[in-house]
Amino acid sequence: MDRAKIVLFAYSEVGCLCLEELIKEGANVAAVFTHNDDPGEEIWFRSVRAIAEKSGIPVHTPQKLGTQETDYLRSLKPELILSCYYRALIPKAVLDMPRLGAYNIHGALLPKYRGRACVNWAVLNGEKETGATLHVMTERADRGDIVDQERVPIEFTDTAYDVFMKVAEAARLILARRLPELEAGTAPRRPQDEAEATYFGRRRPEDGEIDWDKSAVEIYNLIRAVTHPFPGAFTELAGKKYYIWKARPLEGSAAPSKIVSDNPPVVGTGCGLLEILRLQPEGGEEGETFQ
Predict the structure, then answer these.
(1) By CB neighbour count within 10 A (0-12 exposed, 13-18 middle, 19+ buried), where does 69 fall?
(2) What pLDDT is attached to residue 291?
């Protein structure tokens, strides 16, 4: 029996793992749409394009899905569309093409954490768990019926990178579990509870500025949410800009931003103290000392 013809929209490590799962399972992937890497972004994940090309799958990297791309997709006659961390909205004309539907994997437990940078936000907010959600794609991002979810824990010492890798594996597990039903058109669906929905927007490098009036735990959560490979948390100490890549909260008290110890650096916050374990002066080398 012929397998359903799939078009995959994918990027980042989630996209890589899901594409590898489809290849492993012998799925009929007719084409892959992905992105060219942004030279201004630290690329810490593998290449969807390289994985597809190695398997002989046609790859496309348009800047946007315009008329030409829509016409090409229509000519392919896809039966199933899957999106795994593709960064652009897919037009309704494309979503309506496959007879078996279009599905997306989102890096959170919908309806919580709709939107962008959901793993970073979950760590920043001190969540104890997150996960991945397979859901029906609609014109409105992250709103469609839920097919399946996989939960993962967020440990207090986890960085956003640590959590992202857990979420990527959760995405792969979901796809492996539900692929036969997706191909057969029998995947279960349940509506999202709008009363439980939360939304978080895109994060920018400037959002990493530390507010020392916040508690040590809140600042610690920000640092681990945006540390490598993300742009980092930063502050001005002793008249100089520093990036803080690693820290830990301590008991104690001091005025917010007051440096109470130089070796190791310990700084007062709105509640508790923050010990700085790894920092970097702007334009300098990353190290473990405060100068």
Answers:
(1) middle
(2) 46
